[in-house]
């Protein structure tokens, strides 16, 4: 799926390697930014699900995110050609590539005065904590939340509670929160502060935190090492030390590569709490989260490192940030390395490209073959191709070979992961024999 976003004069592609894009005014934390006073620092997010559908959600912004004249509520809404989308006062262009070379897009139109008035009402309501203005109708979700994108359910999804959501920060919202806490409803159902007790240090021993005068954000994990095609479960805890309006809290899985973007590449993002809501000094909000690790991940090493990056987006005040460095493994690459090692071939170097998906390096034949064939190194290239893994081996020409010799083959990923180490080694031996013949 090829989708292009246009926000002001900036554009951004959304695809399987860039599945999530933050839109806002802050160019340091957003992938697509616009310096406009109507746009919040982290205003909205556009993302792809695994089926290639495009969704948008608001992140508790002051002026709101609007689709066809309606403000987005806490649930993501699917985008489609012909819609009119505004992020604050700025139109958002979304363009889809179609079969046969055609294009379909949202409509880029000037902001109507009626919608500007509704945005002003919304901003006033957020600042005062009063009831929602007349005509404000949050858009309901049009599809389930995509796999790999965590969303905590809101209280109206639980039986026994009213089928509407009180204005954040209002007395009704506070009463609803207290009622859920007293009834034993878990943290996933809370609107503002409150919820279940966080895990003890014995349960989640790896902990990192960030803080400023507005509060503290704690990231807690069971370990600091993860692998491709896995789910990363963790816990956030926000402690407020001042009276502030919180727009949203989210956490990202980020890859930093020496040859990649200096801000890192966000592979997955979890919106763990969407506001806005008002905090009091001493409020504690514990929040579980879940992130999905992609398939062809780069391995942590001298050129690449990974981290969890959490934000508490505070309206009109300094945000709270926390970072937890983690170690990333790739089980597919490890299995290939171990299979070669079982044959007495030693992997010398194996470096990943930014965003993973491709590894290049060398491995050494056993000593008796080096002398026999006068070969020191065999070039090695591994590339993820959807559900397959292509392996290319190449021997540069020498006194025995008149030209470079090359052998390539493809593993089905599901079969590679299910195969025993012995079977994988035997397969490599057959391919190496063909290379050397």
Mean pLDDT: 82
What does the oligomeric state look like here? single chain
Report on the biggest sheet.
7 strands, antiparallel
Q: Distance between termini? A: 42 Å
- Strand proportion, as a percent range, falls in 35-45%
- If you compute it from the alpha carbons, what radius of gyration comes out, rounded to the nearest whole angstrom? 26 Å
CATH architecture of the largest domain: Sandwich
Report the structural category.
Answer: alpha+beta
Helix content: 10-25%
- The CATH class of the largest domain is identified as Mainly Beta
- Shape estimate: elongated
Strand segment tally:
26
- What's the total helix number? 6
Uncertain regions spanning at least 5 consecutive residues: 130-195
Q: How many domains in all?
A: 3
**CATH fold description of the largest domain:** Immunoglobulin-like
Biased composition (Low complexity): 162-177
Protein name: FHA domain protein
InterPro entries: Cell_Proc_Reg/RNA_Proc, FHA_dom, SMAD_FHA_dom_sf
Domain FHA: 21-72
